[in-house]
Structure formats: structure tokens, C-alpha cells
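Re: [help] complex structure
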Amino acid sequence: MNIQFTEVKEGSHTVLPSFSFDAGLTGIYTDIKRTQVIMNQLKPAGYLHFNNDGLALRLTVEETFRYHKDLSGVTIPIEDMIALFGLQHEKKTKVKDLSESCRNCLSFLRPFLYSKDLLIIEEPFDRLDEEGRKVMAQLISRIKEQEKTILLLGHNLEELLIVTEDLYRIDQNGFHKMDFNEGTASPAEEEQPVIRIEKIQTKHEGKTILFNPPEIDYVESVDGSAQVNVAGKGYNCTLTLQELEKQLRPYGFYRCHRSYIVNLQKVREIITWTKNSYSLKLNDRESSVIPLSRAKLAELKELLGVS
Amino acid sequence: MNVSVKRMRAIFIKDYKEFSRNYAISTMVLMPLVLALFYQNAGAASLDLYFLPVNMTFAFVTTFIQACLIAEEKESNTLRSLMMSPASMADILIGKSTLVFSITIVIVTLTIMILGFTPANLFILAAGLTISTVFYIGLGIICGLFTKTVMEASVAILPVMAIFSLGPLAMGLAETYSVLEVLKWLPSSQLIMLEGYSAAGNITDIIISLAVIAGWTVITLVIASMLFKKRLKDE
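Output below.
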């Protein structure tokens, strides 16, 4: 479906540049302000979904499903629907007593049933626990199978990458398709295990800061430049992701996604969202969740020696 | 306009459950019954006094609960999803009114029984009460659409009570202030007069009374559905 934005200006500052593109399951990586502007523009065209919106708090989960099933006339059995939303253990709970994450999943029932051709979701994975994110990723892929257009708006790249790689970012000059195809990683040649000191040089507020590779949690590419994440903070690095990959590989780092390099020592968990979408959970301070390409899964498992 | 019994039933069941679990609203149905008990003990004699609790029931039960149901839907932002769903406007309005309609009929019957009032002609009174119920449901929808929360709705019914429930009482002053003669045409006054006419057996007057009440009802329903349509567009 073709989506058009008209330009919105604030003084001389362009908040939203005009743009038109074909969207399928598309993410827009942007800030809160632009999200608002976009939502206002698309309001007449599609179904807007906000979290935790529009639930009858005094009904139980099962009653809510029955009500919306009768109202929408869908033919999916109630039990299956409840399971799809991961709420089979909360059937008799009143909506107001549900955990926030479960409630946010439940509020996705309405867009799931009532959205027409275009569904716009603000911060799809906001305020959801891991179980909830899994449910949400599956629900979004179910809606996608119905040939509907889904537009995700968010300021958390890792979360958007759970469901789609078709991403745009917005700045003053326009929309930019985010490129995760900056050359396929060349197979790194086997290097001899030689002891050597290799510091990673970063810049932070004009200072040059050196990190030992094992300190680094992961490296991500933000707008084409590499950002080194150490203890929950990001530092800019002048090297490209490819150069960093080469340099860090001997220290147990792995290019798990086109724009991410992860320190394998810190990987705690491989999260399976859907059959073909994965993330890695680290045991760093923030318990960061970073995307894992489908193509890299097999190799990574081999590297980690897991099956 | 496609009307689906299944969808109306779904809305009815949902409203019933929400209503019965929200004690702030559901205990309101007891109020007219208590009022009726007082009047019965005080020994109401005139038609005006017999019908005061009945007209109060219409304001406090019919209009109030209907307004709350609509306002609650707005408060939790679910009106938009109702609009997005395949349910038509008729589905929504009829589904939402059925609950209040049944509650009103039960409470009004109980009130009249407690008062120990014997109508001159049960059929004519029943017709008058039924049409009145629909009128007050329409008023409730209008109140609900003008308010945003349940709390605001409980304030919005005050003018309804002052004008429609207490209006007939002010008719006693009509001899001093002839302006108050207009109050005669209120549906609540007409309901009282209807009972008087049916006791006297005056067919023409009965038909005029019923027609006046029906006229109010039709106008209210038209306004309510126009407002409802407009609100849905704004959402």
C-alpha cells in the first residue's frame, strides 16, 4: 500500500519531510514528536493502535474475547484466540487485575480484529515483558499474512528489528531507508591465537577513550557509524563495522546482524520470537536484547557449541 | 442498515456484566424502591404524588444508567473500536438500550406495586410507561454523549430530574404564574394526566396524551442519533 506524508514545518525546521513509499510491514525509526505528527496525518486512513487502550476493565479475559468475537463475527474458536494472545492461564482474571504486559497484549485484540487495510502501531513492544513481546511478534506476523499494511513507529531500533528489516529513519532532509546490506561479511580467515593487546578507540565528549575488547557488550551501527556499547553507554567509534568485526573477531565477537557485532561471552539467551525472527539477550547491566539474523543462527549456534 | 441480533446480544451481555459489577451505578436502582416505600408509608393520595416516584425512576434509573453506559464507553476509549467493528449504529444503540429498558420496566413495576397503586386501565398505563421509557433512554444517550466520564454523567442528569421529574409538581403554581402552563406539555405531566383521563374514560384526551409523549420520544431519538453519528465522526 502506498503511503504519503505531506511536509510539516515548524519555523524553518522540517519536522516531517514529504515522502511517499510502498509499505508492507514497515517500521519507521523516529522520535516521539515525529511519531505524533505521523499519527495525526494517518488518522483518517487507518487504524491507530496505542497500548493499554480501550478495554472494559470489569470483564474477565474470556468475556472480553467472547464479546469481541461476537461483535466482529470471526470464526476462530475462543480457546484458540486466547492461546494466540498467550492468556490461557488468565481466562477468569478480570482485565483490571491483569499484569500490565498481559493487558497490553489484550488491548491488541481490537486492532487484530477490526483493522482494515492499514494498521499503525505506536511503540509495538513498549511495556511488554518477554512473553508479551513474543505474543506481539506472532500477532503482527499473523496480521501481515492477511495482506494488511502495518506501519510500526518507534524509537527503539532493536525492538523494530524483531519483526521487520524494512525500516526507514527520518531526519531534516527526508526519509532514509535503513540499509542492513552493507556488503556481506567476508568469511574471516582463521587467525593464529597470538597474544596481543588491542584497544578499541572511541570518542566521547571530545575525549579519546580506549576499551579492552572484553569490556564491550556489543557494537551497533547507528546512521552508518559504529557505536560501541560498554556498561549500558554508547561511545562513537571512527572505525567501520567491518573493520571492527575483523579486529574483534579473535576476542570472541560475532557479527550477528548486518548492523550488530556481539560479544559472545556476554550472550545469555537466544530468544525465538517467531519461526524466523530471533534476538540475543545479553547478561550486561541492561539485559540488552539485540537482533540476530536468521541466516546467522546456525553459524552462531555452532560457535557457541549449542544445538 | 444491517442489524444483527448476535452483535446486539454481545453488547447487551457486556453491558450487563459491566453494570452489575459497578456498584456505584447498579445500586442506583434501589433508590426509587426506597423512595416508593417512604411514599407508601406516608400515605400518598393524589395522582401527582403517586407518579413522583415513577418519574424519579425515569430520571435516576433510565437516564442515569443509559448516560453512564455511553460515558463509560467514551471514558475507556472504546467507542472508536465499536465504530471500527462491523456493528452498525442501530446495533450499538439498540444493544446499549435493551439493558436499561428491561431494568426500567422491572423497577417501575415494582415501584407501582410497592405504592399499592391500581391503574384505571392497565393497558393504557403500560403503553404510556413504555413510550416514556424510550424517551428517557434517548435523553440518557444525549447526556452520555455530552459528557466524558461517569462522574460528569451523574451531574448531567440533574437538569433532567429538575425539569422532567419535578416539573409536574410546579404545575400547582400555574394559577399564580400562567407561564407555568407550558409544563402541562412535559411528557411526565402528560403521563400523570393520561392516568387521570383513563380513569375518566375520555378516549380523545388519552390519544392526545399518548401522542404528546410519543412526539417527545421521536424528537429525542432523532436528536440522539444525529449527535451519535456526529460524535463517531469526531472520534
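The longest strand of chain A covers residues 267-274.
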